Structure formats: C-alpha cells, structure tokens
Amino acid sequence: MARSGRSSQKSGARRVTLGILIFGALALIVAQSAPQISNFFLPARTTVSDRIGAPADTRLWAQLTGQADREQRIRELENEVRDLARYKAAAISMAERMEAYENILNLMGEPPERGVTARITTVVDGPFAQTVLANAGSLQGVVPGAVAMNEGGLVGRVIQLGDRSSRILLISNYQSQLPVLGEVSGVRAILQGKDRDRGVLHDLPEAADFIEGERILSSGEGGAFPRGLVVGTVTKQGADWIVKLAMRDHASGYVRMIAPPEIVEPLPEPEITEPVAPAPAPSTSQGAQ
C-alpha cells in the first residue's frame, strides 16, 4: 500500500510539472504573437543574433595558425613601403636639385676611383712596424704612393712597390701621420698610430673640440690621401682623443689600392714682351740736300 501511494504521488507531480511546461510554452507563443510583448524582446534578440552572425576581428583559428600575426606583419610592411616610397621621392628630388646646383656652380667633384684589389699575403705586425704585403704590384697597375682601403675604411698607403707585390704602411703605425677632420664638428687634427687598433689625435686647435663618438675622416691636406675616407670613431680618454680604427672592423684579407690624389700645378704663363717699333726710315728729300 505504501509503495502504491508513493508511486501515485510521483505520477501526480510529473503531471503537474508537465502541465506547467505546456502552459509556459503556450504563453511564450502567445507572447511572441502579441506586438507589445514582441517589441519588448526585439532589442535583446537582435543583439544576440548580431553577435552570433558577425565575424570576429581575430578568429581563434587565425591565432592558432599564426595567420593573425602574418596579417599584422603584412600591414606593418605595407606602412614601411609607403614611408620608403616618400623618402625615395624626396631623395630623388634632392639629388636632382643638387645636380642642378653643381651645374650652376660648375663644381668639380672628386675624380673617379680606379684601383686594384689584392689579397694581403704577409703581415708584419710588431710594436715598431705595422706593415702588410699585398700580392699586386706595378704589373697589375699599382702606382707608387697608392692609398689602400678595405670594407671598413682607410688602411694605409704603399711605401714600397715591386712588380708583383706592394708593402703598405698602416695608419696604425706610430710613424704614420694622417691629417684628419671630424665629420660633424669639422675640427682638424693629425692622427698618429698608437697600437694595432687605435690612433691618437694631436695638433688640435685650442678653440675647438671633437664630438664624442663622431666619425673621423681623412681631410686630404698634404695631398697624400683623398678627402673623406673613413678612418674611425673618436672617444675621449683622459686628456687624449683616441680613434678606434674602422679598418679593424672589416678585415676580410683584401685591400683596394687606388691612385693617390694628384692635382697638377698650373704652368707659369710665358712672359709677353711688347714688340719694339722699328725706327723711321730717312726721307728722300733730306738725302738730296
């Protein structure tokens, strides 16, 4: 009897629950059909449908496969290309303007570099002598006093020339005296070799000074080296200005030897002498008297 009573109670509860669900469903259908109630639920329904149907800015699959990063990198590269295009246009405009100014001023630029590339075969590197031997000489087109350079900058100049070899005195040699100037400051000085990698500046003007970290270039004074060759960078150590030589940064074992700058002195103009007028001939009437 107890079991039958409990089962009847459970079945009654189920019927009540089922009836409530059916009534709720009917009420929801009626509510959807009523305009006043439908307008109340419309904003929420529209928002949910838009969220479900609209594509996400960054999809999960794109993040997992790296596509989102690639697209971002593509956008960055496109921006860089646009910036470089503007810089290129500005550079072309400035180059054309510079060429026009040079033509107007009849400016004579630096002569073209014609040289010989050779391999360094022997290095004589000591405290008192720093020279190198290159496997090219006069038969290959090297001229006496040729200037040697590598990828970094100025190396030295030819002091001995053979048929198939050249001895180059490095600018790091203590006997080397190189006129230089600061690329930014314009201060002029003399570079003397200090050790294998450095040089020291002396004969500085009293009223000027170099800028820490600026590049040092050959000034071209004296006529042994062309103007504007990279020598190194300058730093202040105590009371001295020390130059870290750029040739040590790119020591590939090759040097390029170019002819030293040559400016031919003008010939003196020949003296112009005024012609002497001949003496007048005597007249015939005076001779008859």
How would you describe this structure to a colleague?
The structure is a single chain. About 2% of the residues have low confidence. The protein is built from five helices and twelve strands. The protein starts with a helix and ends with a helix. The radius of gyration is 45 Å and the shape is elongated. Helix content is 35%, strand content 25%. It has a domain of 144 residues: Beta Barrel (Thrombin, subunit H), CATH 2.40.10.340.
Q: Order of strands in the sheet with the most strands?
A: 1-2-5-4-3-12
List segments where confidence is low: pLDDT < 50 over at least 5 consecutive residues.
48-54
CATH class of the domain at 115-258: Mainly Beta
Structural classification = alpha+beta
Q: Which whole number gives the mean pLDDT?
A: 78
| C-alpha geometry | elongated
Number of helices: 5
Pattern of helices and strands: HHHHEEEEEEEEEEEEH
N-C termini distance: 196 Å
> Would you tell me which CATH topology of the domain at 115-258 applies?
Thrombin, subunit H
The profile of the biggest β sheet is: 6 strands, antiparallel, barrel
Strand tally, please? 12
Question: How helix-rich are the residues, as a percent range?
Answer: 25-40%
How much of the residues is beta strand, in percent?
15-25%
**Can you tell me the CATH architecture of the domain at 115-258?**
Beta Barrel
> What is the rounded Rg?
45 Å
Give me the CATH superfamily of the domain at 115-258.
Rod shape-determining protein MreC, domain 1
